[in-house]
Amino acid sequence: MRMEYSFDMAKIEKILARIIPPLTDLIMDGLKGNPELKVEEPSLPIPTPSITPISFEREVPSPSYPGQTKEDYCLECLERHYLKALGLLEEAERFSLSKGEITPEARQRIELALKEAVTAEEDLGTMVRDKELARMLDEIKVKYRDWRKWLWSERLLSTQKDIGKLREAIDGMRRLVELTRKAMEYYHSKYGKCNYCEALAKELSEKFGVEESEALEAIYGMASENKERIRESAEKLKRMGAFEYTMKRVKEMLMELEGGKK
Fold first, then answer.
1. Which whole-number Å values give the CA distances from 235 to 22, 30, 31, 219, in the listed order?
2. pTM
3. In the predicted model, is pLDDT for residue 88 greater than 90?
């Protein structure tokens, strides 16, 4: 029976296809000491997609969804901090309009906006393996530092009273929000979420009595190009008693996707 989901077929096929090729050249090397683990060669010829691997943080502090990567978590937090800073700066402008200059109350909001932006520095320090995403984050870093230094040089936290300068600060923060969203759009268009992987994780949870989030993490781990991560995920699926079933279902899903192209 064909599963009906709304998905980007090419994107999902890339994720699923990454799970199969490593079985012979990577997983077997790491599991030779486990005679019970038998892995069949996939009967369906699947080309290994040429895409930049993504890193996967084992523990994302408060994921928005099971299996969320550290890159996606970083971008989500970054956008949240910058949007809050933008809102505070716009509030500062509203406080100043009636007086025609930057008021003490407005300056308090400017300071809060700066604190919010500084908090985002930790997210900008996230290590990523996708070169284009790393380049985009570096661009955001540069723009943020320029904005912060400009804010200080224009004395917006102390003596500056010109509302025009406050509006420049707002424009600068708005550009940071836009750059962050472009990075998010790039990341989501390239990696996205795999609905078939999520469906499989739910199957494993129901069939083997395991946590759905743990199963999903292991499935995404099998799609990694990091050898250690693949081995850890294979071992986790084996402990769940779900390794062979997972491989069988992934091959079935790939065949289904292949069939859908005809």
1. 14, 9, 8, 11
2. 0.61
3. yes
